[in-house]
Every structure is written in structure tokens, then in C-alpha cells.
Amino acid sequence: MSLFENHVVVVTGAGRGIGAAAAKLFAQHGASVVVNDLDAEPAESVVREIEDAGGTAHAIAGSVTEDGFPEALLAGAVERFGKLNVLVNNAGFLWDGMLHTMTDEQWLRIMEIHTFAPFRMIRAATPYLREPGKQERAAGEPFAENRVIINISSTSGLHGNVGQINYATAKMGIVGLTKTVAKEWGRFGVRCNAVAFGFIDTRMTRPKEDGETVEVGGQEIVQGIPEAARGRAFTNNPLGRPGTDEEAAGGILMMASPLAGYVTGHTLEVTGGAGI
Ligand SMILES: NC(=O)c1ccc[n+]([C@@H]2O[C@H](COP(=O)([O-])OP(=O)(O)OC[C@H]3O[C@@H](n4cnc5c(N)ncnc54)[C@H](O)[C@@H]3O)[C@@H](O)[C@H]2O)c1
After folding, report:
1. What number does the ligand 1 atom closest to the CA of 199 have?
2. Quick check: 111 pLDDT over 80?
3. Nearest CA to ligand 1 atom 40
């Protein structure tokens, strides 16, 4: 039997990078996957790739920061596939700057995408994750499903990082959020873990000079890391190389899998050993 057979998985920000790799890996391991992204075309293209490989997927485009969208996304997933097992709060972007020049908007937008949106997604998952578990518990039955939330953190959150006061704060915040969900919903059979990545080769960590952007509130925010800082960043770990998006996805599946059935509130570091 496949590890995620009979599982319905929602991955936010799954049009590219780590989210796309996770969506494909979940599908390879038997899950029906809902691929969300801000950008519709990349999300559709991930769905086509999954279907071409014989898997099952459905795209729901939209922004996880938009009022009402978390509820609509999860209702759409349940309408399509009948239930929810795994929610991966992966969507994100950077808006870096040094503390002394950072604007309120830069701070708030990063808090919004990396902490407020995951909180709203989890709250919107209440009827599909907490409630069935609560009913099973009240009936004295064993939990019928593997129900899990995975949040994404970062070495910037665990250790701090120059130029990322907003992102580092948000990515540590998500660890507190993860532990609290684990404590509130554990009795209802819902696990909640975080996965903290080091330097993974995606658009987020490619040279800033490439000029790739994300549109946030009508502004184009350049993604990436300045070329001068990149080499230092990705050799600063015992494996001495960046991670791939598939390796990052592997960490997400490890923590979501029924094999981690007694693991909750944990932050798994998928960093090539950075910071040990
Ligand atoms: N790449 C790394 O080295 C690294 C390290 C630590 C943590 N992370 C985290 O991993 C996650 C994935 O990042 P990635 O490296 O794959 O980046 P990426 O830029 O390749 O992919 C992020 C995806 O999220 C989507 N997105 C952004 N805002 C969204 C919104 N409001 N609603 C829906 N989708 C949205 C983007 O369109 C994009 O497709 C992020 O949370 C990021 O902070 C990445």
C-alpha cells in the first residue's frame, strides 16, 4: 500500500519550488492533491504533470492572504475529493531589508503571508480536521484518518538572519503556532509539525539580480538573494551544498506520513546540517 493512499492533501504555494515538488511527491505516494498557488498557470501545469504521471490532482488558484480564500480553498478541496487529511502551509515570498530601513508594510506583508495566512488556513480546516477527530473521540472510536498540518519554517527563523528581521520573526512565530496547534488539537488526533529549511535551490534563493518578482498589493517585490551572499549561504552546512526541492519535499512527507504518527509539535530541520 502507498504511504498516502486514500489521503487528500492540500499544498499552498505549490505552483513552483518546494510546494510543487511536495505536491508531486505526495501524488507519487498515492495522495489526491490540491495544488494551490497565487499564479494559476504554474498550478495548472503541476496538475498536468501529476496527471500525466498517473496521479490525481486539482488546481485551485488564489491568494492565501485574501479574506475568505482559506475557507474557499478547503471547501473546494473537500468538494472535489471528499475530505482533508494533510494541509501544507507552504506559500511564501521574501521582502528583505535591513532593520533600520524596513518599512511597516514590508514587516506586515511578511507577517501576513508567513504567520497570519497559515493561522487562517488552520482555523478554516477546523471542520475537516478537528471536528471529525472530536466526534470519533466522543464516540470512543479510534481515529479513522491520518490528519496532519505541516507548517514551513526556516533557518532564518531558528537562528536569525541579517536582512530578514521580518522573515526571521515570522518563521520563528510559525514554530510557536505549530506547537500550540499540536497542544490544542492533539487530543482530537490531529498532528501539527513544522519543517525548517536551510538553503534550498528555488526561485526564492536564486540570484536577486535575475529580477524574478512576486506581486504583493500591486507592487512587484524582487525575490532571491544577492549573488555576493549566495555562495556563503549555501556552503555554510556540513553537506556543503544547497538542497533540492525534492529533498525539501521529502522532509514534508516524512512529517506528514503515518510513520510519524507519534510525532507532533516538532520542527524538523532539513538544512544539510546547518547550525548544528
Ligand atoms: N528556498 C529556501 O531556501 C527556503 C528556505 C526556508 C524556507 N523556505 C520556505 O519554503 C516555502 C516555499 O518557498 P520556495 O523556496 O519554494 O519559494 P518559491 O518562490 O519557489 O515558491 C513559493 C510559491 O508560493 C506562491 N505564493 C506566494 N504568495 C502566495 C499567496 N499569497 N498565495 C498563494 N501562493 C503564494 C508563489 O507564487 C510561489 O509559487 C516558503 O514558505 C519559504 O519561506 C524556503
Report:
1. 3
2. yes
3. 92
Using a 6 Å cutoff on CB, does residue 90 contact ligand 1?
yes
Q: Report how far Cα 242 is from the mean position of its chain's Cα atoms.
A: 19
Give me ligand 1 centre to Cα 91, in Å: 5
Looking at the annotation, which residues are catalytic? 167
Q: Is 20 in the pocket of ligand 1 (CB under 6 A)?
A: no
Instruction: Name the residue among 119, 88, 91, 116 with its Cα closest to residue 203.
Output: 91
Average pLDDT of 154-169?
Answer: 97
pLDDT of residue 63: 98
Whether pTM exceeds 0.90: yes
3-state secondary structure of 176: helix
**Candidates 3.40.50.720, 3.30.470.20, 3.40.50.10090, 3.20.20.70; correct CATH number of 8-92+109-203+244-270?**
3.40.50.720
User: What does the chain come to in residues?
Assistant: 276
Nearest-angstrom CA–CA distance, 76 and 31: 16
**Rounded distance between C-alpha atoms, residue 256 and residue 152, angstroms:** 12
Going by the DSSP 8-state scheme, the letter that residue 97 receives in this structure is B
User: By the 8 A CB rule, do 9 and 34 touch?
Assistant: yes
